[in-house]
Amino acid sequence: MSLTATLFLVGSALAGAALVRRACGRGLDRAEQVLWGTVAGWMLATVSAYALARAAGRLSTPHMRTLTVALAFVALVAWLPSLVRRWRGRAGSQPRAESEKFRGAGLVLALALFAPAYWQLFGTHMLASGEGGVYSGGSTWYDLGFHTAI
Fold first, then answer.
1. Which pTM was predicted?
2. Is the dihedral of CA 65, 137, 119, 115 positive or negative?
3. How many of the other CB atoms lie within 10 Å of CB of 19?
4. Is residue 98 pLDDT above 60, yes or no?
């Protein structure tokens, strides 16, 4: 994997984790913030790359490098206040009992945001009936055949 691809994935995951932390930090523990943030960040970065490609008429290496730098900048700006507080020793932690009150809010938010997009994507691209069989709009090199059989 190239350095640009690695930075793109790491930057988008960090930006997504910061976004999730701000949106529903009380309802998720740190591991959930990181995992949901990775999913959210990668999805938002992918949508951003797609929008950039549509606007420019093509996707090129300079476009991806610019987007990668922008993602790294967003991640840095989003995490900077937390890092400064931690460095100064003022980072407070939420009591566990209070965070338990909102336990399902993060899952509900993620489902509300991502389920419609994935429903539309899978409904139009995966296992679509056509003339002569069932087709997939994407690559089926992995275990889609196994899951289809099940």
1. 0.57
2. negative
3. 19
4. no
